[in-house]
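Re: [ENG-882] Designed sequences occasionally contain unexpected residues at chain ends

Forwarding the minimal case from QA. Structure tokens:
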């Protein structure tokens, strides 16, 4: 029964999706499992009537691969289960935020224990200090750490901090790197030349990107003395997976030092994913500011920036660069993040690296036996998929690969019960849930899917 506000006629309680079916499906009105809505399609139609495009993050809408998204009811380990009850081996893992597998017991019990003590206070709490210390211990360039709510907030705060600390305006970004939905970093780029001040999306005025210079990845650009910061994905994981060319990161470090600019590593994906010290440890290059997200929240919303004491103390309340957030350092996100980092030993990373290599090998085998020309680069625990004869080194090259083939394999894999990201330029993620049995199933399904993709 839905209670209504008599004066306004509006519902004041959350209704069941279907009052006849929900109670018998074991649903409550607020913890909706989707069980009362018959199909992914019905659910998507209903969502689309209230959420633009039916999704809260654009890529989830399947626009670049065609079709309609599955609606996830729940996940366990390496699997997700949609509202129709179909199980998929999940290679998305929340775009890298989930590393231990879905509903990992150490995370769910940390969350349960934390939730009963309250979910947000607007005051300092013990776990935010512990998470900041845990990050500092593992990533020595981060003498000070500020927690926030998303990777996007981390990159936008890092840019503001760099501008405030240097007193300069200009920033340099790399074509094909992605730093979240922040205006100054949504500049257009491409075709091998430096591009200045062209918005990459409607809604971003030219003024917002007037000081953003976009240059090709894997080439050290000229860095003028008007540059506040260079922001880079140290391993590019949003144009497929592209490793930094030998000397690229070292070259950026030297060029930034020469120009007095700050070097920002966006480790929102690579941080705690390719190793405890992230890409900066793997390549032994120390940035001035590091952006984190994803893994450090154990699957809950989080972001963070870290850097030297001198740079970070430019942030308010010590310095003049403003940062604040109602939910920053959230008690649940920090509980989940601490539980995740606590599990991520060197052995776990070795294991994840081995699984990433197995994933690449089984994809390679399946494609080559189906006659599909493809490359599956592995960087640490990250796997990329490119359909073409060469492994790209930048976004112009990545865009020359066969997106249609990706879309065909994507749908063939989905039909076999394997979920890849619905876009050709995302990484494939494995986690602790992808054990030997899952990898064996993955190999069999991938073989069938690759053959099906050639017939599609
Ligand atoms: C490298 C990188 N930086 C920043 C972001 C933005 O993070 P969030 O989605 O948490 O805002 C992403 C998101 O995928 C990312 O891949």
């Amino acid at each position: 029964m839905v209670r209504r506000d008599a004066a306004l006629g509006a519902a004041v309680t959350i209704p069941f999706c279907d009052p006849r079916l929900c109670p018998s499906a074991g649903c409550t009105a607020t913890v909706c499992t989707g069980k009362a809505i018959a199909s992914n399609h019905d659910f998507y139609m209903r969502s689309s009537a209230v959420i633009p495009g039916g999704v809260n993050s654009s890529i989830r809408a399947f626009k670049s691969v065609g079709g309609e998204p599955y609606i996830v009811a729940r996940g366990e380990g390496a699997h997700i289960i949609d509202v129709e009850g179909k199980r998929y081996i999940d290679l998305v893992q929340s775009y890298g935020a989930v590393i231990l597998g879905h509903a990992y017991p150490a995370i769910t019990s940390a969350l349960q224990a934390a939730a009963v003590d309250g979910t947000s206070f607007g005051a300092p709490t013990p776990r935010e200090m512990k998470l900041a210390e845990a990050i500092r211990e593992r990533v020595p360039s981060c003498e000070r750490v500020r927690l926030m709510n998303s990777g996007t907030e981390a990159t936008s705060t890092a840019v503001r901090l760099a501008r405030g600390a240097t007193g300069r305006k200009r920033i340099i970004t790399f074509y094909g790197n992605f730093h979240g939905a922040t205006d100054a970093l949504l500049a257009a780029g491409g075709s091998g030349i430096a591009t200045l001040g062209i918005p990459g999306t409607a809604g971003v005025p030219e003024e917002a990107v007037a000081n953003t210079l976009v240059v090709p990845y894997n080439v050290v650009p000229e860095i003028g003395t008007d540059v506040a910061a260079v922001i880079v994905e140290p391993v590019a994981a949003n144009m497929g997976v592209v490793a930094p060319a030998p000397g690229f990161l070292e070259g950026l470090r030297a060029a930034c030092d020469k120009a007095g600019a700050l070097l920002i590593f966006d480790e929102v994906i690579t941080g705690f994913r390719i190793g405890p010290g992230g890409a900066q440890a793997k390549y032994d290059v120390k940035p001035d500011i590091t952006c984190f997200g994803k893994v450090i929240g154990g699957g809950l919303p989080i972001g963070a920036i870290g850097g030297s004491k001198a740079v970070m103390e430019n942030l308010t309340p010590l310095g003049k660069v403003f940062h604040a957030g109602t939910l920053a350092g959230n008690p649940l996100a920090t509980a989940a993040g601490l539980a995740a980092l606590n599990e991520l030993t060197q052995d776990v990373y070795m294991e994840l690296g081995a699984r990433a290599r197995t994933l690449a090998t089984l994809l390679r085998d399946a494609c080559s036996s189906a006659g599909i020309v493809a490359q599956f680069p592995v960087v640490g625990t990250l796997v990329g998929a490119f359909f073409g004869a060469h492994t790209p080194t930048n976004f112009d090259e990545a865009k020359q690969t066969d997106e249609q083939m990706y879309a065909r394999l994507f749908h063939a894999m989905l039909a076999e019960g394997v979920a890849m990201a619905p876009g050709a330029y995302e990484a494939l993620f494995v986690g602790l849930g992808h054990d030997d049995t899952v990898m064996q199933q993955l190999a069999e399904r991938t073989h069938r899917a690759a053959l099906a993709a050639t017939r599609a």
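QA comment: On inspection the terminal residues look reasonable. Residues 95, 150-152, 155, 178-180, 233, 238, 266, 268-269, 293, 303 surround pyridoxal-5'-phosphate (CB under 6 Å). Proposing we downgrade this to a documentation issue.
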